[in-house]
Write a structure and sequence with these properties.
The protein has 228 residues and is α/β, with parallel strands linked by helices. The protein has one domain: 4-Layer Sandwich (Purple Acid Phosphatase, chain A, domain 2), CATH 3.60.21. Helices cover 21% and strands 27% of the residues. The strands form two sheets. Strands 4-5-6-3-2-1-13 form a seven-stranded mixed beta sheet.
């Protein structure tokens, strides 16, 4: 089975996963929970093992795209490997970082991953301590995504991102957030994927709310959705 949910921020929103696991007795490490960015548990080198243990103790395998609140220096210390057709960082055997612009074949479904976003509180943070400029995706990463899509005939089953394309900002429920969450470069960048790709459903996080924008696009925070 494959599930998807929103940001976890390390231990801050971990409780939803623990509660979900307690309610299910049919889950194994062959099942997957995809987190749509701001995983946040790869943050402090000194407490890394302690911070990751609750996630490894879950009965399923955790997959995540990066958000804006990640320690990119610590993430990048992990070797880039290939898994199910795309590049990943194996944080643990059962905790896997899905890198930007990659396409994975998982349980007969295809997934395009694309993390990153802009921290609206970056002015209160310190670069390379609790904020990294690499939070914003690059045009090179977009090019890799578009190239990988082209090889697949520009078609995937699911798109998993942290932020969303620009057009999505003007649909309920996000429309009510446009004053606080204005358009950022990654929204314009992700619009290129929206224009290029044919997909079944697009899931993203970042905006700390839950709701369906349409029958093809969903923002997640606390909700956990089964998608396969």
């Amino acid at each position: 089975m494959i599930f998807v949910t929103g940001d976890t921020h390390g231990q801050h929103n971990f409780g939803k996963l623990a509660a979900f696991a307690r309610e299910r007795d049919d889950l194994t490490k062959d099942d997957y929970m995809i987190i749509t960015g701001d995983f946040g548990a790869v943050w402090d080198r000194e407490t890394l093992e302690k911070d990751l243990k609750p996630y490894s103790d879950l009965p399923f395998t955790v997959l995540f795209v990066d958000g804006n609140h990640e320690n990119f220096d610590l993430l990048d210390e992990h070797k880039v490997e290939h898994w199910h057709g795309g590049k990943v960082h194996f944080i643990k055997p059962d905790i896997i970082h899905l890198m930007r612009g990659q396409i994975y074949d998982i349980e007969g479904k295809t997934f395009l991953s694309f993390g990153g976003a802009t921290s609206i509180d970056r002015c209160l943070r310190h670069e390379n301590a609790d904020w990294w400029s690499r939070e914003r995706p690059s045009h090179e990463e977009l090019d890799e995504a578009l190239s990988n899509l082209s090889v697949r005939g520009n078609k995937v089953d699911f798109i998993i991102t942290h932020s969303c394309d620009e057009k999505a900002l003007y649909y309920p429920p996000l429309k009510t957030r446009t004053t606080m969450m204005s358009t950022y470069p990654e929204n314009k960048l992700l619009s290129n994927i929206e224009d290029a790709a044919t997909y079944e459903h697009w899931y993203f996080g970042h905006y700390h709310m839950d709701g369906d924008l349409s029958d093809k696009k969903t923002v997640l925070y606390f909700d956990i959705r089964q998608i396969h």
